[in-house]
Amino acid sequence: MKEKTKISANKLTLSAIFIALATVLSLIKIIKMPLGGSVTLFSMLPIVMISCMLGVKWGMAVSFVYSLIQLALGIALDGLLGWGLTPVMLIGTITLDYVLAFSVLGIAGVFAKKGNGGICFGVISALVLRFICHLISGCVIFKELEQFEIFGEIFVNRPFLYSLSYNAFYMLPEIIITVIGAVILFNLPQIKKIVKV
User: What is the pTM of this model?
Assistant: First the structure.
């Protein structure tokens, strides 16, 4: 019984450290988009690592906690509540752009036992799912906002094109940065020992 408690305490401690690290890294913004979203310095890497190291179930729980922290930061730092959204739009934004978008990062470890290729595929899958959450949000929730006009007339009344372009602009670099970080870290002997790849 004591061994199980010790393992749980170790997992909780590691998870808390990785959530804190991911949160700090999310504040280091290389590119900040005008209407939400940014390219950060490896902010998703600690979360996808937890999923690969401790399993998908644990990874989903950790990524859900991380989504709530990102929501709190969105309210406190980005002024989410001051965007002038209707209650339905606000609930949709909270659900799609925060809770779901960051919670899906927990599936990154689904193929971790398949080696480095499986880890890369899992990480890419998780990040693509996050992109899809933002894409749907842009198409459904933000489709009629006048702010689209600042990006040129080509985007007006074309929510899918706008959402695809806007979200790809920051999510593609995020995917590349995170995958590069994962490849480097999961090739370290210390990490290989934990993940058993």
Answer: 0.89
